[in-house]
Amino acid sequence: MHMSDALLSPAVALTMCAAAGAAVAYSAAKLKKNEFSEKKLPLTAIAGAFVFAAQMINFTIPGTGSSGHIGGGILLAALVGGDAALLAVTAVLVIQALFFADGGLLALGCNIFNMGVIPCLVVYPLVFTPMLKSGVTRGRLAAASIASALLALQAGAFSVVLETTSSGITALPFSTFVMLMQPIHLAIGLVEGLVTGAVLSFVWKAQPELPDFAAASFESRPMKKVLALFAALALLCGAILSSFASSYPDGLEWSILKVTGKEELEASGEIFDKSAALQQRTAVMPDYDFAEGEGKGTAAAGVIGSAATFVLAAAVCALVSRSKKKGLPN
């Protein structure tokens, strides 16, 4: 669901950048005020690295000619809380846009909002958390994961349609576009819900003292098992499974293809040209591949991107944690 710059007008793109920036700042301030635990820092960073790697694995949606990948917002929020999860998702999306040209630079605000703010700050507290108020069981965990992922993907897909329509992209009429985006992301959301439930159930079984997810105190709890699990999963997904990802267009590309006959639209205008030129300079492995573009760099991109996400997420979380210690104003 990574939007390109061509789907947005400059006004909508910049407005959403401001909105997403405000949400990230709010989450950082909230974490700082509530004394973000240093024990949460490595889990936030390593789980963020796993989400980066997992997003490289597009799975085929049978009978559609489309594919999808997990967003990871609900999974991250369940592990470390919505605010820390938003910082991790933001780190993932920034690394993807800057180093791999996945999602436009001007569209970064929209992508953070659609894949970060909606699942982490809206769906997680309003759906996932209430469904586990009576206690954590395998069944409740699965139900909460599936319901939350479905709602997050539906809301995110609808947000994409609204942003595109508000931008005046006449090539994608609202009624036609929305009737393609919502059903395909329903299927993608179901798969994400199943994956999220499976991972969280494994974490719960391996370390049952960790949940109630995100609300637990991390100070006195051993995290080695969980950290090792997500490090192994990140390496497995990034270095090995990413090479077997579906080549079909993702849900957004598929929807655009069905409407316009092509997977991507072209942007025109000075601000778009400057954004594209900047991204061309920063993207060391466009489309997760070496410059030759023969598909040989996928595994390397998975490992490099996961490592970069880990470093960025850890740095941001450390900055938030240390600013509280230094007595910076809230």
From TrEMBL:
N-terminal signal peptide? 1-25
Q: Which GO terms describe its cellular component?
A: plasma membrane
Domain PDGLE, first and last residues per copy: 224-322
Q: Which residues form a coiled coil?
A: none
Q: Which residues cross the membrane?
A: 41-61, 73-99, 105-129, 141-162, 182-204, 225-245, 299-320
Q: Which UniProt keywords apply?
A: Cell membrane, Membrane, Signal, Transmembrane, Transmembrane helix, Transport
Report membrane topology: Multi-pass membrane protein
Q: What is the superkingdom listed in this entry's lineage?
A: Bacteria
Pfam families assigned: CbiM, PDGLE
Question: What InterPro entries does the record point to?
Answer: CbiM/NikMN (IPR002751), PDGLE_dom (IPR025937)
Where does this chain mainly localize? membrane
Q: Does the keyword Signal apply?
A: yes
The record's subcellular locations are: Cell membrane
Q: Which GO terms describe its biological process?
A: transition metal ion transport
PANTHER family xrefs: METAL TRANSPORT PROTEIN HI_1621-RELATED (PTHR34229)
Spell out the protein name for this chain.
Cobalamin biosynthesis protein CbiM
Protein source organism: Synergistes jonesii
